[in-house]
Amino acid sequence: MKKEGFVSLFIGNSDSYEELQKYVLVSYTEDGDAIPSKFEKDFGIEYYDEDFREVEFYSQSSNDLRVLLEGFSYDEEIAPEFIDICGERLDQEVNSVILLYNFQYDRKVDKTNQFKFLGTVQYK
Question: Which of 15, 63, 80, 90 could disulfide-pair with 19, CB 3.0 to 4.6 Å?
Answer without folding.
Answer: 15
